[in-house]
Specification:
disordered N terminus, 8 helices, alpha/beta, 6 strands, six-stranded parallel beta sheet
Amino acid sequence: MPGATRDGEWLYDIRLPQQDQQDIDAAIGVWARILQSDVTSRLLIKDKLLDDTAVRHRLLERFACHEIGPDRIDFEGSTTREGHLAAHQRVDICLDPFPQGGGVTTWEALYMGVPVVAKLGNGIAARLAGAILSAIGMTDWVATDDDEYVEIALRSSPDRLRTIRGELPNLIQRRCSPAEYTRAVEEAYRTMWQKYCGAPQSQNRAVPPIGS
């Protein structure tokens, strides 16, 4: 994912190279807008594919199309699991890629105290990060378009980001503990059953047994 910095602080994203080429260009255009809006910002892109210098070169060329020079971008390739999590200590905000967003990487960033900016799209992969943020009560970090994505990434002060870093682990524990998750799943099953029971008989089509 790529990231940008404000006042020497990092904004961080992790999965840029795994997108389709056209999607990469669209995402880079938005990330470049963030860098252009704050000249003190920097970008960290971390992915195992960045072990290949050719991949790094192609990404720098794409950013150069938006007048973002290599001095604004840092790359990090393969690391240990510990090194991967430790990288979050260097950044303030994670920029979720789109249209295919993060899942595990979103949880990792949040668990390490780093807020994530996500943009809703179509389909599960494009909405998973937004669902995760909503589950922990951070709906104000979920954008519906490019302009809102940029605005969210730029609006938090360094002091606010430091506060969020300290609050996130406890917030996740309160909102997404095993007990809370179990209650939410049970409620979802109950709601689905109630809707099924309340629907006209013609809509409740029988499901054939497995193997029939």
